[in-house]
Design brief:
The chain is mainly alpha-helical and 493 residues long. It has a domain of 93 residues: Arc Repressor Mutant, subunit A (Orthogonal Bundle), CATH 1.10.10. Helices cover 49% and strands 10% of the residues. It is built from 21 helices and twelve strands. The strands form five sheets. It has a three-stranded parallel beta sheet with strand order 1-2-3, covered by helices on one side. Helix 3 packs across helix 12, helix 18 crosses helix 19 and helix 20 packs across helix 21. The N and C termini lie far apart (93 Å). The chain binds one RNA strand of 75 nucleotides through helix 6, strand 7, helix 8, strand 12 and helix 13.
Length: 493
RNA sequence: GGCCCCGUCGUCUAGCGGUUAGGAUCCAUGGUUUUCAUCCAUGUUACAGGAGUUCAAUUCUCCUCGGGGUCACCA
């Protein structure tokens, strides 16, 4: 036997679908997609949470709907305001903006109380006076008998005098048999047998505070959320929530349970795995574009496409294309993506971003040449900042291996010749100007480019690798170029 | 253990009965470059296993194996 509410909601949905041709606008308004992200503020924003948030955000945007944020702060002992702020800050960094006011569950006690009273009045929930000790005993007995641990319903139809000194919990009357089908947009229809998984679970604790599976259902309904995208660790909670929806006569939303992200050991990604704090990626020099692009491709795909702008994500994302299997968290591709975005970013934007990494180029007259020369060489903004420092700082030491390789034969003589040309030149601005000087030396001394390039590189940068020398010299200017050449000749002669 | 989900290159994935099983990343090699990086080219590597269904299975069904999730007065 199918659980009746599913049938009703399905029929209702079909009815709407059929009439949508005639009443397009009416239908559209009724079906405005509302998604949500509902973290509990127990720590920073997690990479896995961010991905489901991103999916929810994209799906809402694609449909011209709303993406709302709800803070699930009902566990007073574990929550902190700092955590809420950290989550909000991460969203801000990434440019993911929630629609409307943020809902805090801690401020909604009277709403939950109202619905709990309603269920009590309707006989759909009841007070249970079982003590914690009794519960433990019951579980131990069940385990000893190799039975499933479950509440035995002893207060379900209780009418006598309740025991003294017990603050009762409120339990909901869950169906004891039958089938509950979760219609999941990612995994398909999943059916559970009530006797396998259900018992009269607690919806309000002894102190009157409501529990998770109850408030989730109440809030999702009250907030108008009709498309729930969340981690598939919630899949087994869903039947319980359906019980609440049905007891309250609420519409059941569409569910999309997204597979977990696993660590290298194949386990659910947790805070112990390191680098799961979204803001740590900012510290490490990743751009929001790269992180978001990386995450959207973890468990979701659109053909062979790898690069997605925010606009493309919003246009192309569809939860039906979410993968069914878990993916392992490996950041190899993130580096590539980040390099790609840095390479293709405007110098203005880079200048702005670099201020977070102690590089202020705003008034640097050669910042265009500098960034053009360096931005295709960095995987992260931290690296880019480091590369910039290496170019604009006069080298204080010379790499021994590089010296050995570069300063052979008449290297000093060549450097001297080049230094003289720089000194004598009047107009030196562009890389090309310096390039002509190098060319002149090469031609006059009848040597290969490497003969001048290697020692000059060591003189200018202190090592064998780096950007084009003509660009380096244009960036640091004539005086600094001559200084570095003279320094090297003195030190290495 | 019960229940539920999942199983294509190392990793992210395409595939939706007939493909030399594709792309990306990583790695390797070559080219370009005064060097390194970028860029370009080439290459190595995958359908967990076994039965069925079918003219034909990576694709459908079942079983086995493997992995994961979840079983609270936590969310």
């Amino acid at each position: 036997m199918k659980y009746p509410f599913n049938c009703i909601s399905t029929l209702f949905y079909q009815h709407l679908t059929q009439n949508s041709l005639k009443f397009g606008n009416f239908y559209k308004r009724l079906h405005m997609v509302v998604t949500r992200f509902a973290p509990s503020p127990t720590g920073y924003l997690h990479i896995g949470g961010l991905r489901t948030a991103l999916f929810s955000y994209l799906w809402a945007k694609k449909n011209g709907g709303k993406f709302v944020l709800r803070i699930e702060d009902t566990d007073k002992a574990r929550n902190s305001e700092a955590a809420t702020e950290a989550i909000l800050k991460a969203f801000e960094w990434l440019g993911l903006e929630a629609d409307g006011e943020i809902t805090y569950q801690s401020q909604r006690d009277e709403i939950y109380a109202k619905y709990i009273t309603q269920l009590l009045d309707e006989g759909k929930a009841y007070k249970c006076y079982m003590s914690k000790e009794e519960l433990t005993t019951l579980r131990e007995t069940q385990m000893a008998n190799k039975e499933r641990t479950r509440y035995d319903g002893r207060y379900r139809d209780f009418e006598g005098t309740p025991p003294e000194g017990i603050e009762p919990v409120i339990r909901i009357k869950a169906p004891l048999s039958g089938e509950i089908v979760v219609k999941d947009g990612v995994k398909g229809d999943i059916s559970f047998q009530a006797e396998d998984i259900l018992d009269d679970f607690v919806i309000a604790r002894g102190d009157g505070s409501p529990t998770y599976n109850f408030v989730v259902a109440v809030d999702d309904y009250l907030m108008g959320i009709n498309e729930v995208i969340r981690g598939d660790d919630h899949l087994s909670n869903t039947p319980k929530q359906i019980v609440v929806y049905e007891a309250l006569g609420f519409n059941i939303p569409a569910f999309y349970h997204v597979p977990m992200i696993h660590n290298a050991q194949g386990k659910k990604l947790s805070k112990r795995d390191g680098a799961t704090d979204v803001m740590a990626y900012k510290e490490m020099g990743y751009t929001p574009e790269a992180l978001l692009n990386f995450l959207v491709r973890l468990g979701w795909s659109h053909g062979d496409q790898e690069i997605f702008s925010m606009e493309e994500m919003q246009r192309l994302f569809d939860p039906k294309d979410i993968n069914k299997s878990a993916s392992i968290y490996s950041t190899e591709k993130l580096d590539w993506l980040n390099a790609h975005y840095i390479k293709n970013m405007s110098n203005t934007e880079l200048t702005e971003l670099l201020t977070s990494y102690d590089i202020v180029l705003t008034s640097h007259d050669k910042k265009e040449i500098l960034l053009d020369a360096l931005k295709e060489r960095a995987k992260t903004l931290v690296q880019l900042a480091q590369l910039i420092k290496e170019v604009i700082t006069t080298p204080s030491e010379y790499d021994a291996k590089a010296v050995k390789k570069a300063f052979k034969g008449n290297a000093i003589e060549i450097l001297n010749a080049f230094g003289a040309k720089v000194s004598a030149a009047e107009e030196l601005k562009l890389p090309h100007d310096y390039h002509l000087l190098m060319e002149a030396v090469v031609n006059e001394m009848e040597i290969g480019f490497g003969k001048i390039g290697n020692p000059l590189r060591v003189a200018l940068l202190g090592k064998m690798s780096g950007p084009g020398l003509d660009a380096v010299m244009a960036i640091i200017g004539k005086e600094e170029t001559m200084l570095r050449i003279a320094n090297a000749i003195t030190a290495l002669q």
